[in-house]
Amino acid sequence: MSEYDYPVPESGSDKLRRKFREDPLVPIGALGTILFLGAGLASFKRGQAVKSQLMMRGRLVAQAFTVGALCMGVFLRSRNSSKDGKIDPAARSENS
Predict the structure, then answer these.
(1) Where exactly are the structural domains of the chain?
(2) Whole-prediction pTM value?
């Protein structure tokens, strides 16, 4: 890539697909968090305190999974880029 080549802008859906391919566990964990949160709030509204508490604990586990997946993805990506000695063009365009 020469200094005059500019990266092609990607749409929001293209970026979402790329991010899902790079770290598939993060969106899955985020979806799990949202589902547990919704179920917990619905249980709370219905007055089901025990089920609501269980769903909030599930939400906490799903959030921990998501953060762990995110950290693992960052670690693996940095480890791979340090082995190659190359910088990912997508990462370079996001940082500049």
Answers:
(1) 14-83
(2) 0.68
